[in-house]
Design a protein that fits this description.
247 residues, 81% helix
Length: 247
Amino acid sequence: MRNVVAAEWSKAWTGRAWWTLAVIGVFLGFLASTGYVAQADESIARGQETIETVTDQVVRSWFMLLLFSALFGAIFVTKEYNSGAIARSVLLSGGRRRLLGAKLLVGTGMGVVFALLAAGLAAASPQVFLSTTEHQPVWTGETTLTLVGVFVVTVLGAPWGVLLGWIIRNQTATVAVLLGLTLFVDEALLRLLPAVGKFTMTIAMSSVYRDGKPELLSVPLALVVIGAWLAAAGFAARKLLLTRDVV
């Protein structure tokens, strides 16, 4: 198994997928952070927000790297289906279960890489961006919890993408499903049916990085929901991989 994991780890760093997604995620995080800072003077002057709240928002804005962590996980699996290399990978790994486990482990490891990038930039952003204004960031316990939440959801995004990749198998379709769920479907469900929407994967993750919406689940319950989604996806991925042809 060690050799299989090493081979998959090498594949993860091969090509442009990991750094392209990371660059796009960092760029969007930069835009979100500077956007919050640009509004800070006005919102604080009006009494709508405090500097503590703005600091939290700047840190929270880096949560979007979870989407790119998930996209990497999806591409990591589906690119082998698209290229036709998946059957060869199964043979060389010694079995479908071994390959599934190796890709899930390596995908999660890459999620940690994305999470470290997100957490590092999130921690530095308040000081870097708020220094351009007349305000200084105020780091509180809530800010620390937000930072931890950003790290956790970015890590968990990767296995979510990996498992969806095993289930759907097609790269374009998997990316479309991830984008659709994350950006549209889950948010729409929360607005239309909050009692249902708060149990979706994306919205449960927003509880973890402390988005602050009143209808969200508590963090412990949200982690349970995320675990349930991952377990269900893992069961489906394993079942389909073992019972369907590898093509």
